[in-house]
Write a structure and sequence with these properties.
The chain is an alpha+beta fold and 388 residues long. It is 47% helix and 16% strand. The protein has eleven helices and ten strands.
């Protein structure tokens, strides 16, 4: 068994880490100042444009995109290292294009869709979103009510979606809808490519989330979509959606490892410097145990994530492993960051350190793309054979 990345992938991981250290982490003071003053804790357009140029010049765009579209076709294993590095910072930045939607498109597009949607997206020229969740039907796809019905050569979509990231700025949204109510998620769910300016596609409101996130609620009111924008096969949208969700969950596990490692590094740097009752914190058994437990659990989560990514690259069924790493890594990171906040005492409660935004990021990850409890249920169901 080989637990080392290929040399090329290791060099890439080092390059991304340097990019994070040189470009993204130095932006954190400005992000923290904005957040503390009630402003959006995000990069300005000018800052993002500069970082876009730097990352593109470094060759960090289109990492897992197809080679014939200017990408490097990197495997999931290599992307784990990339995402872990990006997870170390509270500066929210995505190296174009966003991997989960990219992977879903790669498994489903026809030639027309490839030219119109996948190719420009793979090159980082467009932004995408995905609409899955609905009010009252979050982690349970069987509760989806949004319907798509044929009307001549077109599809007419009606319903409502919520918790969509980037819905307002996305050039197109991959929208999930029921096309056969009787079959539901087992052969009756389809995916559609819906452009932002499509009549009937209405962004109702922005929903500020904790940390730096903003999501949106969208209404579909007689939203007419040309027939050729059906993504994949009618009624078979659930399987490619799982490709997208699996990619995101693996990505989230890697982010969690990066966040937890950053928190542990902060403890290790601070504990020898801070004295309580004349003794450095690093000599307190409680701190020593926290450091040991954190290092052990980070190591376990990292290995689990690489194992899952390797199996994904082999084309294996990783539904159980995906749920394992999503639940384990996010909960692990939450506890490690909480220990870091406790170690820093009152300073850990301030908005001058990045810890509160790190905690907020992990807190949302414990919910979206399936809450921890659902993933634990999935693992147990798969192992016990209770799936109906």
């Amino acid at each position: 068994m080989n637990f080392e990345l290929d040399e090329d992938h290791r060099m890439l991981a080092d390059l991304v880490r340097r990019f994070v250290e040189d470009e993204l982490i130095p932006m954190e003071p400005a992000i923290l100042q904005r957040e503390a003053s009630g402003q959006p804790a995000v990069l300005t357009h000018e800052e993002k444009a500069r970082i876009d140029k730097v990352s593109k010049d470094l060759g960090l765009w289109s990492l897992d995109a197809p080679v014939d579209m200017g990408g490097y076709d990197l495997p999931h294993v290599a992307m784990v290292a990339v995402k872990e590095a990006l997870g170390r910072t509270i500066t929210a930045y995505t190296l174009p294009p966003d991997s989960p939607n990219l992977r879903m498109l790669m498994t489903t597009v026809n030639e027309q869709q490839k030219a119109a949607y996948l190719a420009p997206y793979a090159r980082g020229e467009t932004i995408s979103a995905i609409g899955i969740s609905e009010p009252g039907a979050g982690a349970d796809p069987s509760g989806m009510l949004t319907r798509a019905e044929r009307d001549g050569d077109d599809w007419v979509i009606n319903g409502r979606k919520i918790w969509i990231t980037r819905a307002a700025e996305a050039d197109f949204t991959i929208l999930m809808a029921v096309t056969d109510k009787e079959k539901g998620s087992r052969g009756g769910m389809s995916a559609f490519l819906v452009d932002r300016e499509t009549p009937g596609f209405k962004v109702l409101r922005a929903i500020p989330m904790i940390g730096t996130e903003v999501t949106y609620e969208v209404a579909l009111e007689d939203c007419r979509v040309p027939g050729w924008k059906l993504l994949g096969t009618e009624g078979q949208g659930f399987a490619p959606m799982q490709v997208r969700l699996g990619t995101r969950r693996c990505e989230m596990a890697a982010w969690s490892v990066g966040l937890a490692q950053r928190a542990l590094d902060m403890i290790i740097e601070y504990a020898p410097q801070r004295k309580t009752f004349g003794v450095p914190l690093s000599e307190r058994q409680a701190i020593q145990f926290w450091v040991t437990d954190a290092a052990t659990r980070i190591h376990a989560a990292r290995l689990m994530t690489y194992d899952c990514a390797w199996k994904m690259d082999q084309g294996r069924d990783v539904r159980t492993e995906i749920s394992m790493i999503k639940a384990y890594a996010t909960e692990m990171a939450w506890e490690v960051i909480d220990r870091a906040m406790q170690t820093f005492g009152a300073m850990g409660m301030t908005r001058e350190l990045p810890l509160h935004l790190m905690a907020a990021k992990v807190r949302t990850m414990r919910i979206y793309d399936g809450p921890t409890e659902v993933h634990k249920w999935v693992v147990a169901r798969n192992l016990l054979g209770t799936r109906k």
